[in-house]
């Protein structure tokens, strides 16, 4: 029995993804003690991230070579725009942030670097490169959500419980499995050199995901802005 490409990918990202669970932002989210200003920063940056992520999903439909693949990308696009981003809008309302303000968030350095990387490799490659770029986000969030759901009190937390419920849900798990299935289909029959290229995209986006959690924890924006503000205040 041949090994699925996603099984091969898991062997490369296992250690990286498990490190997310030890990150103070993710740990604070799961245990309920995460400072809300840090979550607010993640919320705003992730919202503009999801806008770029949606562009990638649309690009996947454009590059698709058959109607089934096109439909899968379109379905994922709808879920991102209407379901996942709605969770963000719901949380934002609790901070008094309007959808317009969310959309006008100034992208930070990590968000810009991450999405620029995904867009770059996706535009240069085929539909399989688009899927490899997108896979880590959905799959790793589902991984985190299901892991956190096993932590005492995480699902029932008055503020963060909804986040855990969303990413551990059967609906989100099903969408994740559709992403994995599509990745396996698109990788089937590819020569080793192309599989290595796709694998490296998944590894790099996994590293970017860690950087995104770090960005949220440190409430990072742009280092040069910080330096300018320090000069102004001195």
Structure description:
The protein is mostly helical. 80% of the residues lie in helices and 0% in strands. It has helices spanning 5-20, 24-31, 36-63, 67-94, 99-103, 109-124, 127-148, 161-168, 170-187, 192-218, 223-233. Helix 6 crosses helix 7 (127-148) and helix 7 (127-148) crosses helix 8 (161-168).
**Major sheet description:** none
Unreliably modeled segments: none
Q: Indicate the percent of residues in helices.
A: over 70%
Total DSSP helices: 11
Mean pLDDT value = 93
Portion in beta strands: under 5%
Rg computed from alpha carbons, rounded to a whole number of angstroms: 18 Å
Task: Provide a compact summary of the structure.
This protein is an all-alpha fold. It is 80% helix and 0% strand.
What keyword list fits this structure?
mainly alpha; 80% helix; 0% strand; globular
Helix and strand arrangement:
Blueprint: H1 5-20, H2 24-31, H3 36-63, H4 67-94, H5 99-103, H6 109-124, H7 127-148, H8 161-168, H9 170-187, H10 192-218, H11 223-233
Helix pairs in contact: 1-10, 3-4, 3-6, 3-7, 3-10, 6-7, 6-10, 7-8, 7-9, 7-10
């Amino acid at each position: 029995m041949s090994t699925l490409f996603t099984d091969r990918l898991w062997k490369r990202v296992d250690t990286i993804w498990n490190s997310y669970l030890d990150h103070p932002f993710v740990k604070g989210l799961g245990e309920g003690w995460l400072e809300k200003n840090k979550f607010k920063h993640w919320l705003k940056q992730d919202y503009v991230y999801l806008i770029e992520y949606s562009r990638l999903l649309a690009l996947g439909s454009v590059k698709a070579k058959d109607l089934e693949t096109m439909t899968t990308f379109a379905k994922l696009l709808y879920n991102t725009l209407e379901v996942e981003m709605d969770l963000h809008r719901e949380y934002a309302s609790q901070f008094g942030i309007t959808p317009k303000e969310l959309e006008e968030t100034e992208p930070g350095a990590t968000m810009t670097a991450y999405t620029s990387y995904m867009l770059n490799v996706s535009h240069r490659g085929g539909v399989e490169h688009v899927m490899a770029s997108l896979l880590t986000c959905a799959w790793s969030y589902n991984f985190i959500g299901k892991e956190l759901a096993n932590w005492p009190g995480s699902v029932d937390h008055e503020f963060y419980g909804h986040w855990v419920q969303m990413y551990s849900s059967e609906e989100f798990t099903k969408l994740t499995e559709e992403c994995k299935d599509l990745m396996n289909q698109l990788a089937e029959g590819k020569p080793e050199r192309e599989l290595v290229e796709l694998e490296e995209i998944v590894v790099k986006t996994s590293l970017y995901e860690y950087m995104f959690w770090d960005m949220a924890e440190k409430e990072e924006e742009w280092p040069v802005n910080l330096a300018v503000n320090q000069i102004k205040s001195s």
